[in-house]
Design a protein that fits this description.
Helix content: 25-40%
CATH class of the largest domain: Alpha Beta
Number of helices: 14
Distance between the termini: 83 Å
Number of strands: 32
CATH topology of the largest domain: Rossmann fold
Shape: elongated
Amino acid sequence: MTAHSKHIRQPIVSVLGHVDHGKTSLLDFIRGSTVAAREAGAITQHIGATEVPIEAIYSTCGPLLGDKKFTVPGLLFIDTPGHHAFTTLRTRGGSLADLAILVIDINEGFRPQTHESITILRQYKTPFIIAANKIDAINGWQRIDDVTINRLQNQRPMTKTLFEAKLYELIGTIYDKGFESDLYFNIKDFRKSIPIVPLSAKTGEGIPELLMVLVGLAQRFLEEQLASESGAGKGTVLEVKEDVGLGTTVDAIIYSGVLKKEDTIVFGTRNEPLVTKIKALLKPKPMDEIRDPRERFASVKEVYAACGIKISAPNLDLVVPGAPLRVVHDDEAELIQEIKSQSQVNIELDKNGLYIKGDTIGSLEALVKESREKGIDIRKVEIGSISRRDIMETAAINNPLERVIFAFNVKILPEAKEELVNTDVIVFNEDVIYTIIENYDIWLAKKKEELEKKRREDYKHPGMIKFLPEYVFRVSHPAVIGVRVLGGRIKVDMKLMDQDGKSIGSIKGLQLDNKPIDEALQGAEVAISIEGVTVGRQIKGGDIFFTEIPESDAKKLRLMDVLNEDEKDVLNKILDIKRKINKFWGM
């Protein structure tokens, strides 16, 4: 033990990963298997967390640990799995979790939430282990009760090859994310490589090894960090909810110090911090004691870090998930200031950009970070449901590309839904950041194209065509001839002029392969009909014609960036023709 040792608390372990990859079944198995080792040490259910004492771990791991003894008293698993809990539980911009398990289905590999989890783990600099789950689903897998290295050695050759292929693919993807990784028993330096533990949450193979690696890492690298103060309690709000008979309560994880029933505590809220007095500290009763579901909780006098606890106190409806909680000691004013600075969403905003709403401070930070990396500007961020005011405010924005709300894990209120129908505001509402940004990218590309098209339609565009002498379909009423578009574009109803600026008439119709079309671009060969001219008189084969552009459009086109190089070239030729007649034309 270090000289620093006051009291080593158990590390807080968070479980992340993609939906259906087995986060909950992993926690269930850990609870179940260690409950079987109950004589060795009772598993305690906390609020939002499960405590597995070191004795239960010794008993589950058995001979794996040899005679090793640890000073870590056990592990506290956050049992609200998913990165939602992970980003909610934060302290001073870092994560509350000391360690994390990233669960990956070895057969499926990385999925959207896996990518997201690893990004968040990197952002919060949380050490993690990879649980390569569902090994039992690998073709031909045989359950062998032995340590992992022998379990793998003794599979049939075909199964072993399959396992290795899946493992190397995993190691490759993790490498692309900027991390070295390998099977835990091959790792020399745990500071440099992420350990991978192959396991099955279904059969329990590999779970003792997972617990062993977790405890080993905590003991080796986190001892300083786990030295718990015995002073005033500090925690983070996991959830705020209505409980039958209790009113609004707060589920919190206490990560430092002591929390007593008579304490006065300060909570972060969206506005001013809330100072309130604890009415009751509640823990779930053990399974075998619940007679009446209304009495699910037992009242306790005090709790020590690390633990999950339900707090009943006045005015808790103001509290937000992810907000800090502190026991008031000597200097209340200073504490309130500190809480205030931690509850504020301190995010640099842009003058223009999108509006982001999230369910917690942590999820806002994660969404902002991902958006920033994609070069997305953000004008406003807020915690909570989407209101009618949010929609109206966003609808009033000038730039149609910014009438967008990113909503992470929040509700759209009924009156906001009604308002949405009457506006062109778009809300990307998902519980995966990755999906929000992916959907936004697809929408943005389509929207830009749409706006570009509309912007082009607002102006007469420059076009230059050549009359192909071998294609005269009709001489007059109307004249129908074949032309090649040498530059720019031509459309139905555009007026034409010759190289001297003399008007020729307008295009009544355009055809390609005997089918009517609206417009023809550079390089196209099409048939056009022109009213009011006769081939051989006003026009003849080989002539070059230009579209006539109103002077006001010509001026705007010169200033605006809507033309490509080829169209600019044609516009300059039209300007030259017009300026022979009026030298200031289009200036």
